[in-house]
Amino acid sequence: MTAASAPLPPASLVEPEEVDTTRKSTKMSRADARAAAVKGKLSSPWTSLIAILIAIVWTVPTFGLLITSFRPRSEIRTSGWWTLPWNFELTLENYQEALFGSSTSLATYFVNSIVITLPAVIIPIALALLAAYAFAWIDFKGRNILFVAVFALQVVPIQVTLIPLLSQYVDWGIAGSFWVIWLSHSIFALPLAIYILHNFMKDIPPSLVEAARMDGAGHVKIFFQVLMPLLTPAIASFAIFQFLWVWNDLLVALTFAGGTTDVAPLTVRLAELSGTRGSQWQLLSAGAFIALVVPLIVFLSLQRYFVRGLLAGSVKG
Amino acid sequence: MNGTRRRRSYVAAAAAGASLALVLTACSSDDDGGGGGDDASSSTDCAAFEQYGDLEGKSISVYTSIVDPESVQQTDSYIPFEECTGATIEYEGSREFEAQLPVRLQAGNPPDIAYIPQPGFLASIVADYPDVVVAAPQAVIDNANEYYTEGWVNYGTVDGTLYATPLGANVKSFVWYSPAAFEENGYEIPTTWDDLLALTDTIAADFPDAKPWCAGIESGDATGWPATDWLEDVLLRTAGPEVYDQWVTHEIPFNDPQVLTALEAVGGILKNADYVNGGLGDVQSIATAPWNESANGIPDQTCFLHRAANFYQANWDEGLTVAEDGDVYAFYLPGESADDKPLLGGGEFVTAFADRPEVQAFQAYLSSPEWANAKAAATGQGWLSANSGLDPELLQSPIDKLSFDLLTDDSYTFRFDGSDQMPGAVGADAFWKQMTAWIAEDQSDAETLDNIEAAWPASS
User: Fold this and answer.
1) Which domain of life does this protein belong to (chain A) (predicted)?
2) What is the CATH T-level fold of the domain A99-315, as seen in this structure?
3) What is the predicted pLDDT for the residue at B265?
4) Is omega for the bond preceding B277 within 30 degrees of 0, making it cis?
């Protein structure tokens, strides 16, 4: 993965890697396995200890935020969340206020976020799969140059594209609608998606594809019946990646769609939760946890693909 | 004609608040015959809106930096206009307003109307996008001249053309205190700057464990702005409004000796370890204390004085009453003498980027006393306008009333927040950062002013 690509998820999310390495060791030769077992016996307590320590250090701020989100404003102001056992006072008021306190209920923004995120994940993956297949398995003139060009597009920072893209959308008369957000997210995601999926496809043994061809399968059949089942981890990992990126995006939504309640996602509301002059700051922690629920569910349900797919796509290539 | 429109607006109102209308219909079904009379008395008097004509089906987009919950009071105040003219206001508030507005203008996607909170920003918009921004129509000019003082009209004027009229206003020359603490200890409200310093010394002597003043200038990426207000307020007092104007427009350099004197006076309070920072820590803690929480020591009597604008009232804990006989209140930050009364404040300016009739009508409405009164009625606390047609009885909070009294009192000399009028590189950047360094790193007075002067754009 290049440094110029889209932002990586926090390192804490990549932790389960360890589980994977132990599982792989079963496939090694016997000598290797014994060596690994000895190594594992020696190092695992320390590794576990460090892993646990790191996990705690990373979780504590989030845990504090969670407790803070249940504390009344005056308590947050006067004492830290760790003093909770001594002055035990919890309230759901922050959540109540964050969810229903404004003129537009948070549910509207939630729906907007979902309406934005799903197509913005599906469209680039669908397009990138086709492109990656062509780059990997169809021999056409200028393929390498084109691939390098697509790869190089990752270097373009999205900030420089904002104003030109917006003027284009205004010319087309579609600014301020969901269309521009889906389009923009797809544009920004495609280079990385094509690159990752291409590398993964390239990694599949050519003999598999050739055998299918010998049996008379065309491109469509090869793509759907031979490659797709093998690609699931890569697709899932990129889907998580793109989902988190779009769900947490503020810049693209704010610039292209604006802050009207028709199209604004949750992040736009979250950025304004504290009010014009920031006097409602106590709602921020509650708002953060409400926004966090969906990505958390998505990540936990798909995380076993995440590390495997991401590594497979990026390291080899 | 009038009857038709009123009936139509009734339908619109019913559609907007469908559930409410259902309830009302259910309740009034017995005396259905008197419905017509009810309609006339309950809905707004539309006579004042005749001039705007019939705007049925037209919509006006408004883009502002005012977000929930304050935006509800804004949209509520448009209801009379919407009901009487049939127009729809599409309101959009964003805290990223100042970054996003130029992007929209550049991309050819301007809102119909924007509320620009700084005259300096307005001037740069007019300079950068002269084809997009629209000068105020005659009806707005008339309203501006009739209901606003010349000073306020000038803040919306760029190069002799009126572009924008004031919307809301705020008054920054206030010192928040606890009336109870003052009464308990027999302290008097100071009427001169020397009285204020004498009071400070008295408090410092009476309460060795507390500090007289508390302050905080942390405000995210705008950290430092409360300190710029301090300097502006004091400069108005030590050098006078004329020098202040020259300083703001850069006729005298930013680091003029008179400004240095003012900064030294500010430092006499903010950088004096005997005076600050009540309940929060030492001098350096001013830089890290959030501005909207820094006065919380006042009700606890760990600090006694806090200089902040009238809008600070939204930051007090809910249990506290803001009133002259309540838990917290504010007095006017005194001038050099009791007759010397400069007043520092700010406000937003209604700027149009379209000249359609409905946009001009709405612009005229926003500059009219009808709007100011509708807004005051819709707002619980924390809002006022410099519109002289505003009925002070409608203001519900004592501090808002006091602010309005000061704004409309001729013995007070009003000046707009200086940093809001300066070029962005100074007013929204160097000034904030250097004032923060002045406190956090104990940077010297002269060096601070020199650095800001160096940041002033060469062309201005």
Assistant:
1) Bacteria
2) MetI-like fold (1.10.3720)
3) 93
4) yes
Q: What is the CATH number of domain B174-344+420-455?
A: 3.40.190.10
Look at residues B93, B86, B28, B79 and name the one whose alpha carbon lies nearest to residue B59: B86
Nearest to B293 among A77, A175, A271 (CB): A77
ipTM over 0.85: no
Fold agreement (B2-15+53-171+345-414, B174-344+420-455): yes
DSSP string of A280-298?
Answer: TGGGHHHHHHHHHHHHHHH
**pLDDT single digits (tens) B310-340:** 989 888 888 888 888 889 999 999 999 888 8
For the segment B46-67, the average pLDDT, to the nearest whole number, is: 87
Distance (Å, whole) CA B408 – CA A224: 76
Domain coordinates in residue numbering, chain B: 2-15+53-171+345-414, 174-344+420-455
Of B175 and B55, the one with more pLDDT = B175
Task: Decide if B100 and A276 are in contact by the 8 Å CB cutoff.
Answer: no
pTM tops 0.80: no
pLDDT in tens, B338-366: 888 999 999 999 999 999 999 999 999 99
SS3 for B460?
Answer: coil
**Are the C-beta atoms of residues B421 and B248 closer than 8 Å to each other?**
yes
| Residue B221 in contact with partner chain A when CB distance is under 8 A | no
Contact B107 A163 (CB under 8 A): yes
**Which of A74, A163, A272 has the CB atom closest to B68's CB atom?**
A272
Which positions in chain B touch A167 (Cβ < 8 Å)? 106-109
The tokens describing B102, both together, are: 């130029």
d(CA B383, CA B371) in angstroms, rounded, equals 13
Distance from CA of B134 to the nearest CA of A (A): 20
- Among B68, B290, B293, the residue with its CB nearest the CB of A275 is B68
Are A170 and B96 a contacting pair at CB < 8 A? no
- Structure confidence by residue, pLDDT tens digits, A222-232: 888 888 888 88
Give CATH 1.10.3720.10 domain extents, chain A. Answer: 99-315
Q: Which CATH architecture has domain B2-15+53-171+345-414?
A: 3-Layer(aba) Sandwich (3.40)
Residues of A in contact with B128 (CB under 8 A): none
Residue B36 has pLDDT above 60, yes or no: no
B 293-312 → A contacts, CB under 8 A: 293, 296, 311
